[in-house]
Amino acid sequence: MIKAGIKCFLFAIVFSLIFCLSSAVFAQGVDTVSSNPLAPQGFLEKLSPVFSSVIGEGWEEMQQKFIQTVLVMVLCYFLIFILVRISNRRVKNIKARHILRKNIIYIVNIFLILFIILIWIKNIGSITIFLGVASAGIALALQEVILSMAGWFLILIRRPFEVGDRIELGGVKGDVIDIRLFQTSLLEIGNWVDADQSTGRIVNVPNSFVFKRELYNYNRGFEFIWNEIPLLLTFESDWMRGKEIILTHAQKQAEGMENIVKNAIDRMAHHYMIYYQKFSPIVYVNIKDSGVELTLRYLTEAKRRRSTEDELCRLILEDFEKESKVNFAYPTYRIIKT
User: Is the pTM of this model over 0.70?
Assistant: First the structure.
């Protein structure tokens, strides 16, 4: 919070200095600049009245505007500080508190920009001329920055994800912990850690990715995912008994979830052409080189994938241990003497 305020304060100072220097050059006329034979005199002569009409003339006026800008910046930062302190004390829900903090910062900064424009712009009618002169160069020099800002607006309006969602983009998976003007921060999952567990690293991704890369959202609309657990039994095992044990435990874990899943599917059907026929767990049978493969397929919440898999594996192992005719297969070698 303090770092963000310092950055905003420094940005306002730099912004004000740029306007002051620009005004000083153009308000004094183009005589000094035009003495340089390499200077495009006609271009400067056309720009001089534009800058003068937009931001005014005179060093005294520049000093007043600079002081007003600094005061507005200080007041806005103080207002953000007070409102954030109040929200941190009053709002207990972590996600709601974070969203409220971000909205406070966004709204106050929007008003701050409007105040700075009103301070520096003298003739409103000349803004279009000024923007027309500056927009081409700014668009080329700050292409990636502008694209990131456009991505931020798209994220706020269309909401492909929000804070707390688990997403994957460009091979990076993680939980969204912050959405800022230029970048989105993720708490990384996966990578060298199995089963979508957190790595502890924070990944910062430019917001321009929403226009360039595919985005996978684990939570948006339908918060459940299909997970599979493959188990390989020997050919000599009673694979039907093994299938029965696996399916029994999966169905017990899925009790009460079917109605929740159906309601989520119905909500998604209002926005997407999506249709699921089966929600209950199922076990598929396949013949492999070294045994019979039983694959359990079941629905689980995206963030509970590892915990549900751990629980099911423990229960299945306990029951398999009690069955003498159900044995796991593993790679073996048979040496035959001739």
Answer: no
